[in-house]
Give the backbone structure.
Amino acid sequence: MKQITFLILFLFTLSAFSQNFEDQWSGFFSYVSVKSISQGDDKIYAASENSVFTYDLSTQELNTITTINGLSGEIISTIYYSEEYNLLVIGYENGLIDVMLNGDEDILRVVDIFEKPTIPPDKKRINHFNEYNGNLYISSQFGISLFNLATLEFGDTYFIGDLGSQLNITQTTVLEPYIFASTMGGGVRVAMVEDDNLIDYEQWTAIATGNYIGIQTLSDEVYGITSTSSLYQFNPQGIEAILGNVGASVKSFVSNNDLLTITTETESKTYSVGYQLVASVSNIPDFEYNLQFGYVFENNFYLGTSSYGILVVPFENNNVTQLLPDGPILNEPFSIDATPGQLWAVFGDITVSFNPFPLSRRGVSNLKEGEWTNLPFDDIFDANDLVNVSINPNDTEQVYMSSYLKGLLKITGQVPEILYNETNSPLEIGNDNPDVGIRIYGSDFDSQGNLWFVQSNVEKGLNKLTPGGQIQQIDLTDIIDAEDEIALTVLKVSREGYVFFGSASNGVIGYNPSNGLFNKIGEDIGNGNLSSHNVRALEFDKQNRLWIGSLEGIRVLYNVGGFFEENADNDTQPIIFLDDGVAQELLFKQPITDIEVDGSNNKWIATATSGVFYVSPNGQETLLRFTKENSPLPSNIVQDIAIDAFTGVVYFATKNGLVAYNGTATAPRENLENVYAFPNPVRPTFKGNVTIDGLTANANVKITDIEGNLVFEETSEGGSVLWDTTAFGRYKVSSGVYLVLITTDDALETKVTKVMIIR
């Protein structure tokens, strides 16, 4: 018996059911870019960048499926719906596969290909799914894998390149008794589909050479198309007919319902048997689109676009229907800011070394009262590379956005009002170089309503925008060489009105507006003790301590009030905690991207590699940690965090999308009028904490049983406290009604509410 080399069998399926997070999380994904479309069960299934939406053809309802429901959050390459097995299969560029079972109730994550060590990471992309006789033929960059749709298990994998080598398979199709495979670099190959020895590469015959992006069956005909858009008809022996060139780069090549649909960037055409044109669509009025996928069903084109979701166009006219779930303009939020009831997001893109090139020309998005408003790039005065957002706390209709090339953008009531630049303000082009431009980054408001912001590569790099719209500039040459500093980064204003801002190579600079004094926090002990001079995050907590995040960890400045005093000790300190009795530094050497403080003075810390950490007020206890592996975070690259202080909702801007966690730590209220406890009643299946919300600052909270026995007492730091339903941590309290007795810090106001516990 001949020995077969390069043979790998997937003998079992490595998989796990994904968790559904709908009770605690919300997803805010963009669906404008549709990359793949499938149909079945009276629904259209559309794959956007890393999520899916469905369109019910009967009810005309749109529904979304995201990481909140259990999707992986990776970049999707193709989807397929099996009507026979009621399964939606989602393939990813990294080799992952998600299988949605029972409609949308359960998601099975299949990691066989993703975790296979013998396949290079850049060769695992899932290109296409083709169902035949209960098996899903998975075309990937390395070969063809079989997946049994009944048992949800992998079968054989076919390496059909020369001498059994890996070959990029773009599509497969079956015309009994043959299976055809189109490849990039290996032409078209054919074999007997029922051959029990298809793992032997010699059973596959090359019937064409070159680069083929697709091959499809239409009734009893087989068509293939090349990367140069040449269309051919095939038989098992080779090319049967040359049908010419479609004239443009082909984006999708699909056969369904006895129609072959060929879609380029600008048009889609569908053909019947014999390559007879049935319908075509191009030049859709009111839409300047780029097509990515074309699908035909019931005399309608379903066109996946790069910026409009799906455009539905009937064969007989151009009466367009747009299918697009509500969401932000893009899936790469760089900076966000939130106030009660609203969130703003910008999508600028700069490198870790603060290089804005190639320039990003993207709009902005506003979530208000549950609905998104998206402002396109053309409406924001061509302000590219927006990298920071600051909502005016005194007038939340005003928001300021920093452009890392064009200046400072002001939007009022969702209407762009002005772009402060060299033509209408004292701001100057950095280094007299148009490629440097006006590079604005961090900004923050002081208690007087002034917006402080920093500009890189100019001597007067610190700026104050007054409520009246006047910009005052402060020269930095006495403290740093501002023109040669790579970048001035984040900025925060303390309760005293001191302005602190970070830099890429000079640590943290502090400025006292009352007397014009500067001071600096550097790396060495005695000079600031920062973990790195490259500072990316600043935040003051409720004890007026300055938390500093750099590319190499966290430090805390405890002496904010005395920072500008002569001979003051301004060294920052690491957070040290004990791990099994061994002293450890919090987030040692981790690249920190943002730090936010919630209503309970706990800290949310974003990292560039390891997701999000939620730590206690002193940082010595990690309360929660979210990663893409244990939560709906679509990426461990978390670029920004924003908190709605009224609701406690925490928003995470990641490299692959925006999600929110329903936190419980809220800002303190002015009175006790709206105190409430939740959940209430506490049922036997509930395992979490009871939240007492609507508190004033430093309110005393006591919980007693109906006989007056005290089981819990705590003083609030923000607007809420948590009770673990135990008697001071000793044991779970029994069923019954418990009284919550609340007294304000000044003892002038009291409130009583009740919680029912059911064990």
